[in-house]
Design goal:
Radius of gyration: 18 Å
Low-confidence stretches: 117-132
CATH topology: DNA polymerase, domain 1
Order of helices and strands: HHHEEHH
CATH architecture: Orthogonal Bundle
CATH class: Mainly Alpha
Number of domains: 1
Number of strands: 2
Helix content: 55-70%
Strand content: under 5%
């Protein structure tokens, strides 16, 4: 989808610049670079992303093997995956506010992704505080 007046690089630069801390800016830059690389490998524009594609991206981020400091392959930590997805979702929320045609494709996917993790791990056992 081509949007009139939409300049991805300018929007990205602005979005990063308004983040309150240098650490958040750095985290968002890295996370959105991962997303940009994924889009480029699929020849997609940011405006092409649907909830199904967002779900595919999340699966790829979860399943992609990274090399640790010793060079051994390992999966990303769940908190790292969450951080990447949150950065992408925040960026799309920013875009929604500026362009009426854009909707955040990650919004509904985050809930589904969290539910699927819960389903795989089974129900949580809750202590009722009954002690004898």
């Amino acid at each position: 989808m081509q949007l009139r007046g939409f300049d991805y690089q300018a929007e990205l630069k602005f979005f990063i610049s308004v983040q309150p801390s240098v650490n958040t800016q750095s985290s968002y830059k890295g996370s959105l670079r991962i997303f940009e690389d994924w889009l480029a490998r699929r020849s997609l524009a940011p405006t092409d992303v649907t909830p199904d594609l967002a779900a595919e991206f999340i699966r790829c981020v979860r399943e992609e093997k990274m090399k640790d400091s010793s060079g051994k392959p390992k999966l990303r930590a769940p908190n790292s995956v969450r951080s990447i997805v949150n950065a992408c979702s925040s960026f799309y929320t920013h875009l929604e506010k500026r362009f009426a045609e854009i909707r955040n494709p990650f919004r509904s996917v985050q809930w589904r992704a969290a539910a699927s993790v819960h389903e795989r791990s089974g129900p949580a056992h809750v202590s009722r505080g009954l002690h004898r």
